[in-house]
Write a structure and sequence with these properties.
The protein is an alpha+beta fold and 415 residues long. It is built from eight helices and 19 strands. The strands form two sheets. Strands 1, 2, 3, 4, 5, 6, 7, 8, 9 and 19 form a ten-stranded mixed sheet that branches. Strands 10-11-12-13-16-17 form a six-stranded mixed β-barrel, surrounded by four helices.
């Protein structure tokens, strides 16, 4: 029997009923939705976390030949092994493994390739003069990696447990760390979504892994001050975005502006934000300015505040703490505040700008010689025969003596 069309009267009745029910349905959905999300998070939180006691180790049968320290290029040489921990939404974190360094096998539809479910960290292990192995402030890296993961719907983990595994991994790869000041083992923890799907949603599986690369001093022949191009044509980060998270997606868009700055003869971009041209970061580093206050002549150190657009750098935090403790005792002021490129240029013109530098894991500090802004080069206080100012030099020295165990400090964790 053929289906009969719905009468106009019945259709009108159904439409009216749907209209009357719809608000109640939407309200019920709005009330239930947070509860269901919370229930899902609670369920995941009850799943097994990372368990260092379950670690299994498969050693390589083909150890790599060591590269002479003077030939090391950042990020090109890797150690014999990698640390790998899988996760699923149904089973939580699987037992960790240290295995021979190898390629990953991922389906072409894996969500990390399509929707950038990826975050990472950069940290270093150091060998002290007496042969001890140390890691610098790993708790800060674990905290930041978890914050990054949570922001992009990847699983979080027990930071202390993962640090324990990193320590074991570093001990295994000790032979790759040159016993020379300035050298270290760069550690790259990385977390990716691994679910095979083109659907957009929280990944149902993930992989947390660690690889390591022996590296030499950032400045092999000593400090070399850089020149910056004050950039306003593109924006690195914005309020409400993810500029304060260490996501791979934050880095690729910065390459083209850097290449354009290089064509104009400058090493890196100084990222300015908004019509006021607020100073934010330099390249992939945090930025500091040291100057004398107008009127009082008091020496102050400025850096941008953690307002959601600034990466919470481990070296940034360390510089601030050391500055407040040691420079503060010498009468310096230390401020996390918004300041503009115009204020820096004015200080330079009036002879009040003492020095500027960037901070990050790779270089610790990177002195700045000049900043190109509005058709002119703003001098950043260095003399013609200087490559670093006094503050940058002192900061580098203070931090490195902690990293290499010259002084005992709570920031330096023995492996």
């Amino acid at each position: 029997m053929a289906c009969q069309p719905i009468s106009v009267g019945l259709r009108s009745c159904l439409t009216a009923l749907r209209t009357r029910i719809s608000p109640f349905y939407r309200l019920n959905w709005q009330l239930r939705r947070p509860y269901s999300i919370q229930s899902q998070e609670d369920a995941i939180a009850k799943l097994p976390n990372i368990n260092p006691s379950a670690l299994s180790i498969i050693k390589t049968t083909t150890p790599k030949q060591l590269v002479p320290p003077e030939e090391l290029v950042f990020g090109r040489t890797f150690t014999d092994h990698m640390l790998s921990i899988e996760w699923t939404a149904s089973s939580g974190w699987y037992p960790p493994q240290i295995i021979p360094y190898q390629n990953l096998s991922l389906d072409p539809a894996t969500c990390v390739f399509h929707y950038a479910f990826e975050c990472f960290e950069g940290m270093k292990a150091y060998k002290t003069p007496n042969g001890e192995l140390r890691i610098f402030r790993p708790d800060r890296n674990m905290r930041r990696l978890n914050r990054s993961a949570k922001r992009i719907a990847l699983p979080t983990f027990d930071g202390e447990a993962f640090t324990d595994l990193i320590s074991r991994f570093v001990r295994m790869e000790e032979r790759f760390i040159p016993a020379t000041r300035g050298y270290s083992l760069y550690l790259r923890p990385t977390l990716i979504g691994t679910q095979r799907t083109l659907g957009v949603g929280p990944p149902g599986s993930a992989l947390l892994y660690l690889i390591a690369s022996p590296v030499g001093p950032y400045y092999p022949t000593g400090f070399k001050a850089v020149s910056l191009d004050a950039t306003t044509s593109v924006v690195r980060a914005w309020p409400g975005g993810v500029g304060d998270r260490k996501l791979g997606a934050n880095y690729a868009p910065c390459i083209v502006p850097q290449l354009e700055a290089a064509k104009r003869g400058y090493h890196q971009n100084l990222w300015l934000f908004g019509e006021e041209e607020i100073v934010t970061e330099v390249g992939t580093m945090n930025f500091f300015a040291c100057l004398k206050e107008k009127g009082t002549g008091k020496k102050v150190m400025w850096t941008a505040p953690l307002d959601g657009t600034i990466l919470e750098g481990v070296v940034r935090e360390s510089v601030l703490e050391l500055a407040r403790e040691r420079l503060g005792a010498e009468g310096w002021g230390v401020e996390e505040k918004n300041f503009t490129m115009r204020e820096l240029a004015e200080a330079a013109d009036e002879g009040r700008l003492i020095e500027c530098f960037g901070t990050g894991t790779a270089a610790v500090v990177s002195p700045v010689r000049k900043i190109h802004w509005r058709g002119r080069d703003v001098d950043c206080g260095l003399k013609a025969n200087e490559e670093a100012g006094e503050v940058a030099s002192r900061m580098k020295g203070w931090i490195e003596e902690i990293q290499y165990g010259d002084v005992e400090h709570r920031w330096s964790v023995k492996v």
